């Protein structure tokens, strides 16, 4: 198949917009997590709350690691669409 048949301009725009939407949502979530951490760090907490906060922070760190990998993949995909080097 030729690239023009495989992926029309309309399809490329659709996927590009979708990837940008996902990227922006991930970045919004990252900002939200950062703001929550800032808010929690200024409060004085008891040991139980501190333990809960540490567990939440651990889960957020795992999520952010996954998000970072996804963001990198999205950026690569967007670059490949722009360069015309996308594939199956």
What is the terminal-to-terminal distance? 11 Å
Oligomer: single chain
Q: Please, how many helices?
A: 3
**Overall residue-averaged pLDDT value:** 82
Specify Rg, calculated over alpha carbons: 19 Å
| Overall SS class | mainly alpha
State the total count of DSSP E strands. 0
How much strand content do the residues show?
under 5%
Name the features.
mainly alpha, 88 residues
Give your account of this protein's structure.
It is elongated and about 60 Å long. The protein has 88 residues and is mainly α. Helix content is 84%, strand content 0%.
Give a topology summary.
Elements: H1 3-6, H2 9-41, H3 47-83
Helix pairs in contact: 2-3
Question: What would you say about this model in short?
Answer:
By secondary structure, the protein is mainly alpha-helical.
